[in-house]
Amino acid sequence: MNNPVYINGEFMEYEAARIDLEDRGYQFADGVYEVINSYNGKPFRMIEHFERLKKSAAALEIKVSDYGQLQADAEELIRRSGFTDASLYLQITRGTEPRSHAYSDDLTPNIVMTVKELKNHPDEYYQKGVKAITLPDERWSRCYIKTIALLPNVLAKKKAKRAGAFEAIMVRDGFITEGTSSNLFIVRDERIITPPATNYILNGITRRVILEEAAKLGFTVLEESISLGELFEADEVFLTGTTTEVMPVVEIDGGVIKDGKPGKITGKLFDHYRGLLG
Amino acid sequence: MNNPVYINGEFMEYEAARIDLEDRGYQFADGVYEVINSYNGKPFRMIEHFERLKKSAAALEIKVSDYGQLQADAEELIRRSGFTDASLYLQITRGTEPRSHAYSDDLTPNIVMTVKELKNHPDEYYQKGVKAITLPDERWSRCYIKTIALLPNVLAKKKAKRAGAFEAIMVRDGFITEGTSSNLFIVRDERIITPPATNYILNGITRRVILEEAAKLGFTVLEESISLGELFEADEVFLTGTTTEVMPVVEIDGGVIKDGKPGKITGKLFDHYRGLLG
Fold first, then answer.
1. Structure pTM?
2. Which of A197, B5, B55, B267 has the fewest CB atoms within 10 Å, i.e. the most exposed one?
């Protein structure tokens, strides 16, 4: 199968996949999702992704009957794709019913999964670093839930791309929250710092891996607020995410970070992270 | 046709309507919508709804090639439904492409319309008034765009229903913004007051009709911030919306407004509004 798809228990070709018009995901952004990468046929941190998925769904009161079966189906979909390295997209929406804001309590969720060949960002991005811009964080106040209501992220990411940047770093009340699809870290005096996992950020799986692994490597790791000023004065800046991995940021809003080259600690963490995959 | 549907230029039965999995509306809430009621076969304030639709789409850079044709198709769909009083739902999403936050500039939008028989709220609601609750406004900062990223509204509306209330009135920084699918007005000393149309509220068509018509009826009409305290001390409170019409609120968070009965000015505006329809 090429780009196989899973919808509510059935495996099918992408072309056969169709969504109901009154799926609440389509009319209300009433759903949650995960992106899970698989390396050499082995899903990376599948358990953590499913734990977060359960929490996201529970926060919205979306009830999935059997997460164990879903995880088995996810693994099966990856197998069927035949890709050595694959990227799985898993989305759960509340279900289908005639359009009305308040939802019924007894809805059966719609579960969709797609899988594509994993394409890493170009090596050059990691070797030379990328640019970022800063933007006001316009999102809602419950960013800790991984929902499909991603429109603010979409608009900010587009602004970044237009500015020739890799990512938009969002700022709320003078402090950094995160990227539109990544978490942010800075390095200062060899200490690794990332904003705490409040309601204003999505606690990324890669973020947590880096926090754990950096500590194992002997670094001082801190979850502390980062002001806009501290961002620009950092020794190193990097972004993390399932697709982003550990991405050095060397220029923000046109100003270079330190000497404009990827930082040493960022490079060390990137190499270490790559070593964990598959 | 029963519940006819329109998708990208084609009219069909609801059962035949299917959405693409990678429609950006489904994965990113990347779209806008309108709900337009038709009374005795005549769409109410169609032009105003389309003007707002254009503004919403433009704010997201969604490019629709021919709004004139779309409006004609909307009218045709209402005709085909055969309903004397109908409710048209019109949704435009950015288009379909492989999932990626930043969108391509050349996408063709997906346009979907459904039409159902219009069901008014029970007369009793208008005669006796309804209850509301207040909740923190958790939405993003660009609520003036009528997008399908409605998850915060959905969660707040559900809380209201669970509390036995008709609507949740949202509060940001101590001031009222609006309901989850309605605008809010208060009456104080015979003056009619609603919060100004900042970026934190959706400037409802019914809101504007009421502002205009109330002025025509000789009332003093003000667009001013309303604090939570002012809400509870109001002489009258009512909500407006295409489906809500002019709905008296007689109890908020368990406390009665004045004598707990729908206000006289609210009643007058309701009667007047009903008179404008079809």
1. 0.97
2. B55
